[in-house]
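Q: Make up one entry.
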Amino acid sequence: MIPLFRQLHHVCVVVADLDRAVAYYESVGIGPWFDYPKGGAYAEYDVPNAEASAAMRYKCADLDNVQLQLCEPSELDSPQRRFLDEFGEGVYHLGFETPDLARAEELGRGAGLGIVARGRRADGSGFCYFDTRAGAGVTLEVRKTQV
C-alpha cells in the first residue's frame, strides 16, 4: 500500500493580492519567488472551472524542507475563490508527493475520499485534490511531479 500523505511537497496559501503577499514574505526573508511551472498539457483534466483554473496566479518559493506556494484566484468561480471569499487569506491545501498518482488516487477513493479536481499527463504526472476540508480543515492533494 502506498502511503497517501507521507511526503509533504508544498503548502499553498490563498491570497487576495499576490504581489503584496510576495513583497511581505520577501520582507521577512522568504524567497526567492518564481512562477509556478504549469508543465505540459493534461491528457485528463477534471476541474470545476477550467477557465478559472487557468486564470489563477501562483508564485512559489523552495525552502529547505518544503515548497511554499501563494495562489491568487481570479474573480471567476473556483474552490480557491470561494475559500478566499468565505475565510479570507489562509492555507488552502497541503500537497503531498507520490511515486504513483494513479495508485494514490485509487487508494484515496477506496478510503472514501471524494475528489475536488484532478489532472493527469501522459507521463503519469499530475495532481488530485481530495475533498477533505470538512474533516482535515484543509484540502489534501496528492501529486506526481513531471519529469
